[in-house]
Amino acid sequence: MKTWNDYKDYVKKNDPEIGKDIEDVENISAIVSAMIAKRNDLGLSQRELASMCGIPQSSVARIESFKTTPNLATLIKILRNLGLTLKISQLA
To answer: How far apart are CA 26 and CA 74, in angstroms?
Structure first.
């Protein structure tokens, strides 16, 4: 296998449950990456964002380093303060 996508396709074909787990991780990664990009675009430090959200700076750091997955309320609070929204779509 030459690429990540080749590997994902292989796993999805041979173990659909693990394939779903990979998709979940990629979705979380996309959300957190968008959060980091927007925070940087706004010129905010983790500490400043945390203060705006009323959460500890260490929580922002753990989320951004993928050491923890935020609960939905925390995620929405962070995204709102960054001017972002979370959209839900139906699976095809």
So the answer is: 19
